Amino acid sequence: MDFLVDSVMKVVKPNGLITAFVIVGVLTWISYSASKYLTKGRIHGSAIAIVIGLVLAYVGGEVTGGKKGIADVTFFSGIGLMGGAMLRDFCIIATAYGIKLEELKKAGLAGVLALVIGVFLSFVVGGVVAWGFGYRDAVSLTTIGGGVATFIVGPVTGAALGASSEVIALSVAAGVVKSIAVMILTPLLAKPFGLTTPAAAAVYGGLMGTTSGTAAGLAATNPKLVPYGAMTATFYTGFGCLVGPSICFVIVKAIVG
After folding, report:
1. Which DSSP string corresponds to 110-128?
2. Taking the model in full, what pTM does it have?
3. Where would you tag: which of 61, 109, 128, 248 has the fewest CB atoms within 10 A of its CB?
4. At residue 1, does pLDDT exceed 60?
5. Cα 199 to the chain's mean position, in Å?
6. CA dihedral 144, 77, 28, 205 (to 10 degrees)
7. What phi, psi does 216 have (nearest 5°)?
8. Which residue would you say has higher pLDDT here, 20 or 125?
């Protein structure tokens, strides 16, 4: 048995990224199968996959006592690279190539307003919830508000403002909850909300943000809408990272002192 484990590790260690792709591929297949056969498509496979990933990250952290979740387990170390910023940003950029510019222009002023309203509304909602849980300082309120925008905006805002690791972790958790909620609810609410055109998808991405949640939700609604929603959702993240530690913090600081 030890010989078998040693043999496997000799192959896995120098090929961590390839192993990560295989593992994620298998988990994705399981997730989409569960979505199709267990939920009849009501819960998108991406949402199930994220939940599985969160569970594995928790287990990995508990077992190893490390800070990288499942990537702290040697066999799964390649997932740390696969899930890093480099490949994430590559996927976001690649998605944008599916856009037809003339369709994106139809969103026009509505898309821009949706982007601004969506970002600032998220900061407000997050700040109110944080206040309800006892946080009173401007740094924590702004950081958690940023997390409600997306799980990227929260940590970026917190790092810029010097927030504690606890508050930054809460901002990430808030963003993940929002992402999963958007994944699940988008297909259910698409028809009642008129989410059927590229322009509507662009406005929706600006309001919701959370690129992963918006992309997965639109994929379950109509795959052709994904690039439009993902494009404005990506701008949403960038805009949130820009105004979070600056304008939003100044406003919160003026309110709470």
Report:
1. HHHHHHHHHHHHHHHHHHH
2. 0.69
3. 109
4. no
5. 22
6. 30
7. -65, -40
8. 125
CA distance 164 to 146: 14
CB 228 within 8 A of CB 93: no
Count the neighbouring beta carbons within 10 Å of the beta carbon of residue 69.
Answer: 21
- What is the Cα gyration radius of the chain? 20
Average pLDDT over residues 215-244: 82
Q: Which is it for the CA torsion 142, 144, 147, 148, positive or negative?
A: negative
Place of tokens 């910023």: 85
Q: Report how far residue 241's alpha carbon sits from residue 152's, in angstroms, rounded to the nearest whole number.
A: 8
Cα–Cα dist 104/125, whole Å? 28
- Size (the chain), residues: 257
Residue labelled with tokens 């192959």: 11
Q: For 76-106, how does the pLDDT look when each residue is reduced to its tens digit (9 = 90+)?
A: 777 777 766 666 656 655 655 555 556 556 6
Query: Contact, 130 vs 144, CB < 8 A?
Result: yes
**Per-residue three-class SS string for 48-83:** HHHHHHHHHHHHHHHHHCCCCHHHHCHHHCHHHHHC
